[in-house]
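README: folding subset

This subset contains proteins for which both the sequence and a predicted structure token string are available. Records are stored as plain text. Below is the entry for ATPase (616 residues), shown exactly as it appears on disk.
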Amino acid sequence: MKLVPDTSAVIDGRVSERVESGGDVETVCVPEAVVGELESQANSGYDTGWEGLSELQRLTELADEGSVTVEYVGRRTKPSEATGAHEGDIDAVIRDIAEEHGATLLTSDQVQAEVARAKGIEVEFVEARTRGSGGLVIEEFFDDETMSVHLKTGTKPKAKRGAIGEMHYQTIGEEVSDEETMKAWADDIENSARASPDGFVELSEPGMSIVQFRDYRIALARPPFADGIEITAVRPIVKTELDEYEFADELRDRLSERQRGVLISGAPGAGKSTFAQAVAEFLNDSDYAVKTMEKPRDLQVGPEITQYTALDGQMSKTADSLLLVRPDYTIYDEVRKTDDFEVFADMRLAGVGMVGVVHATRAIDALQRLVGRVELGMIPQVVDTVVYIEDGRVDTVYDVQTQVKVPEGLTAEDLARPVIQVTDFETDAPAYEIYTFNRQVVTVPIGDEAEGRDETGVSRLARQEIEREIRSIARGHVEVELQGQEKATVYVDEDDISYVIGKGGGRISDIEDRLGIDIDVRTHEDNPAQSSASGGSGGSGGEEGDVVTPEVTSRHVVVRMDDHVGETVEVRADGDYLFTATVSRGGDIQVSRGSAIADELEQAIDRKQKITVHPA
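--- output ---
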């Protein structure tokens, strides 16, 4: 009897088992397509590839003993066929070989067996071998207060234990984990997840797998992606209800009133996902159709809430599918990259209530993540509520609205513009204003948020704008001193007085009208701080910032800030404040050459001053 095994039968060791059972197998014809697939899997770090190659070596030993004849037949698969393995291209090559040699096809693949039977090929189907213990081998490391367990080859087991907000990273075992044990644990976890109805493999890439097994999310890292085998298992230690949080009644009313755009923010481990789960359960119990978008899926929600992951690796495709499902609310965990914010905004503007989970160390930071990613005027339509979680509790809730008004701190009526007002939900007091000031998006703290600051955002912007206007007409050095919100003193070289004031005071009057502030023009000799002035417009402190190297092009001076997209930052030279800007969606700040800001920045570059960028 001739036998042609497919890849599944070789990996499961069913070929040598069939020969050793004392049956009538005389010749085993191993397709080169099987060898190629096993080699590819082994090169990619998959254990199945190594197991299959071990089985081929066992067949060689049986052939040497005279128990069977082993032949390698057929051709290697083409790259296009290997790429389409999941679509059956390799299986088709193997079936053709079995038919060509008049052999019996041995397989553990149910679909392969059924297709072969349909084509009149003789088939011997054997059940796929069950892999893994069926349980979680590392569950012994968990107790009631353990949130996560961290295992790595060559180290002692560690865990994060304690109550939310009081977690401690501690050693939980004195025995160092060896590589053989770690490999056995990692393989067992992944195989058990594949075989058990309680688990599934969320992500499987060379060197990295993410497994969901019951309520555990487990990351399995292997070389060469990691420098050693590492297992990180996380599970929720509490499951809460919305009633357990502060502002529960107000939040319930707000979420039930209509579909909202909500950002749940907080530092890692603060309890954001736990709160999101409580919101999801409340909305589901309130007769809303609720879905989730997660990668990986680890929110602990009831079976009525369907949990979706990235479709074909893209959340945008998941969003397109969800719009057909028509949920009332979608929980998006986690919103982090630009694509995530765009998907969140797109679904929100389509009328779906959205609750996003965002990593942020301040409540306002979560909202600022939208700046540069979503058109400024659309932000309140995308997000109208920000909830900040700290130590497992609701610390701050912001209401987000748009008003047409004069920004706080300015007085001239002709400076009115659309302003995003961020209001403290508890006190109804304004906390921040976000608006466009001279083509820059700025976030200005007001009220209690502005206390303790040496210079308010409005004052800084006002001084910056006055400097820009005066430098456009003055030829020498310019310094600005604010005298409250409605008045400023400008110090210029004596030769520049007439240029700045203009004939009959017309030039300075035009500037005053544009900026809505009274300006007194004087010489540097009249400046009481002349002795300490060093040519800057007033230092902004000496704290450390990100050192950058601006690029001067034919039209712009460009500052690259890829890690700060959408953030409002200050640019300084040797600690002296230059200007404030918002990093564009492309990850840079562009200043047009010829402008006062660009001239000052270029002068700082020429003087080889250290250019730094600081959070505004």
